[in-house]
## 1
Amino acid sequence: MKLTDDLALEVSGLRKTYGSVVAVDDVSFAIRRGGSLGLVGESGSGKTTIAKIILGLESAAAGQVRACGRDRTAAARTLGERRRRAREVQIVFQDPHSSLDPRQTIGSMLEAVVRLHHRDLIAGERRQRVMDLLDMVGLHERHTAALPREMSGGQRQRAAIARALAAEPEVIVLDESVAALDVSIQAQVLNLLADLRERLSVTYLLISHDLAVVRQLTDTAVVMCQGQLVESGTTAQVLDDPQHIYTQRLRASVPGPTWVRRVSATPSILDEGGAS
Ligand SMILES: Nc1ncnc2c1ncn2[C@@H]1O[C@H](COP(=O)(O)OP(=O)(O)OP(=O)(O)O)[C@@H](O)[C@H]1O
């Protein structure tokens, strides 16, 4: 794969094993600056492992990860390097309950991140930045004093998005970020994410098993099956005209507004007896 500077994120030949399990097997994809790519696949296909390697939470056995043209495959050696990498890629997890510190108010959490990444700002400017971040995600000044448990699930996820934005990252990894929310709240947060992408030109890597979410938020998609990338293309191509049998089964197994039942209930869409 050609590595170029107008790409926000590039993953090439990535491999990760856990003992005898090959979690990620020679996976390559790229996202242009401001683009949004959906990483699709059923549970255990290797999606979160890829996210962890991109974030530096796991090391790869082979392959390369680059963000904004800079290699980040090897562990960061200095604090400055870790901070710079954090400004390149941030993550929003599925469950803000466990990803937010339960003892820290939303305001102090955001101010700490602003302070870490914008050391030149004075106190008043930092406070203003926190207000701006809250406003960007549809929260209010009163939420600065709130603890995570005093907020609704949707508000907590908005706070987690604000925390990611506080670093002004080039790329945000959204790892099942709306999966735990009620459907109506999920729609609001999806709209917020779409608006933010448009306003900030931020790049998304969206990890989801929910094809409707992938359709709404991404313009390209890759499909993972048992650690391998089996299909890639524009989101419309992949979802409307899937070429690989796995993607076809994945699509057929997802109930949606226009869902037609084509497969019987099965623990895995890979079970031969499961699809009919
Ligand atoms: N820390 C670990 N130790 C051992 N095996 C692991 C570890 N993390 C992941 N795996 C294995 O690697 C494979 C890929 O897991 P991964 O969590 O990346 O999949 P996923 O597609 O993100 O699934 P899910 O949507 O359920 O999170 C699975 O077989 C999983 O059991």
## 2
Amino acid sequence: MTTILGCIADDFTGATDLAGLLARSGVKVSLRIGVPSEPPKDTAAFEVIALKSRTAPVGEAVAETLAALDWLKAAGAQRFFWKYCSTFDSTPEGNIGPVSEALMEALGADQTIYCPAFPENGRSIFMGNLFVGEHPLSESPMKNHPLTPMTDSNLMRLLEPQVKQPVGLANRLTVAKGAIALKDRLEALKAEGVAHVVVDAVSNDDLGVIAEACQDMSLMTGGSAVAMPLPQLYKDAGLFPSEAQTADKPSLAGTAIILSGSCSAMTRAQVQAYKDTGAPSLQLDALELAENGPQAALDWLAAQDLTEAPLVYASAEPEKVKEVQAKLGVAEAGELVEDTLAKCALAARDQGARRFVVAGGETSGAVTKALGTDRLIIGAEIAPGVPWTYCNSEGHDIALTLKSGNFGNETFFATALSKLEE
Ligand SMILES: Nc1ncnc2c1ncn2[C@@H]1O[C@H](COP(=O)(O)OP(=O)(O)OP(=O)(O)O)[C@@H](O)[C@H]1O
Ligand SMILES: O=C(O)[C@@H](O)C(=O)CO
């Protein structure tokens, strides 16, 4: 089928988050890991390409995103969605702005919107300021993120240094007036030369208004949630025929492994809750990994019964992470942990693991790449923004869930496992 909406996500958990929310409407969503090396074949109306570009150097992120754009164009897409984190994670150099401007230039677009809001997960935007629950972004646990600490909550201030063209705001008072009022505001800003418009949203109703007003833009940007209304809007506009979601749930109960490289407050609570169930667990220590390599972890794993779904985690308190980063360097510490968790994933698969629960975006990228999967089928949603996915890992059918650091409730790991047993 010709692709209607071509989506590019800057990390793997973000890609499954977006694909899961698009699939809520019952449409078939196809998720590719990285830019496919083959020309488009067997495409779906909604195609998502997962990149691992959030913390990549700007030039690399731009080049990979443009390659993804070319593939999606070849699949027939004329509308595009650039998905970044609902907490607007970017390094000080920033990839969100430069990637958006490169996409706009390639598409001949003179304006786009920025809406990372995800109300079901507590992310809302008011007067251009991003809130996590009741706290401004910069006062939320995101201020301590190991790779992209967020120390400002104002999206215009975060975006301005990242782009060449002017940044503006369409605030909640406009959004509350509906899609026509928002379109008028966007037109007025365009007349003033404003290319980058942050749009407030505090509820799913606001997201419906924004999607309706922006559905004809060649490029929309945001978190996953603002894309959620698009399939229904496109169906209503007669852009594609109804088709059923075809992901069958394979029978993959039994063996499992949980791998956590996320240090977010929610993941740390999930790790503790899972350990409290009495499940076997191993904590990785980045300093020890730097000294002795991953063999001790692999030996521990080899001795485990995978029907008990063991947990391997590096998740640690911010002070501990900072201490390790000061000794090893931020990127080096992250890579050591990611590399070890990826090796554990491969070893677990070869020991017979068929369900993989992975926490953390960067971690998910490393694990998914190691498993050698190139396409994910979207299955049941475990928590808002976290679906099970099914894929083939070098001849083995497996289920994989990639959990964003901040998503899910405390019992997420056990809930994810039981979901495939229902
Ligand atoms: N104990 C540790 N010491 C140093 N770095 C660590 C430690 N544990 C994890 N890391 C690194 O921190 C980074 C965590 O990023 P990751 O994207 O996996 O999680 P997250 O940011 O919580 O998730 P998301 O991007 O979905 O919000 C990874 O690069 C990981 O390797
Ligand atoms: O938007 C989010 O918060 C997630 O999809 C994500 O990008 C996690 O890395």
